[in-house]
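Morning run. Coffee first, then this:
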Amino acid sequence: MKSFLIVDCYLDDPDGATSFGKRLNGRPWRSVRASDGEIPDVLPDVAGLIITGSAASVAEPESWQSGLFDLIHQAKSVGLPTLGVCFGHQAIAGALGGTVLKAAQAEVGWVDIEILRDDPIFDGISNPFQCFVSHADEVSSLGPNMVVLARTAQCAVHALRCVDGPMWGLQFHPEMARAEAEKLCHWRAEKHPELNLNPDEMIAAAKPYEELTQAIFGNFLVAADSCLSN
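And here it is:
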């Protein structure tokens, strides 16, 4: 069975890929550490590609991001199922002709997300749905052959897809366990007092999103299986 390749773009957490690997329903996976220069020059024979979040910024790129952009181009050219989350979502947009900018204000917490068009990645998901978000950058424009799939009141591009291939970007964090999201919420509040966040109040009002997590990754696996069978 082919494995999934997870490009771990985190700068601090040395095991940022694990939260994604746990969502693959027992499928084999392996990871490479992007900031350590482990991004392959040639896309390996894999079932799908996943690109994680990061404290890095597409708006202020670091040198290793050019290798990531090359990998995204390769994945698109061969129709490889690809899922980017948060930074990964922004990297897909940036690599394929879109624009990523600093947001007017960071978006943090559990927010309502509106689905704008039917798409397989959202099969079985209610509209709107709620999920945890934490980002200071945002996709401000899309490249050719890309469409917006979802938005929030604060962020106009919360999900995107390449219309000519199985490649999706999600600004929200369906992979995060509740405890990890709560920890990040407190970190944002402490690190950025100018945001005036009340993490305890936000956490108390948050709704469970495990079913959403299972649906998103289940739908991505269906897309990957479909590509393998064709």
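The CA atoms of residues 38 and 171 lie 24 Å apart. Good start to the day.
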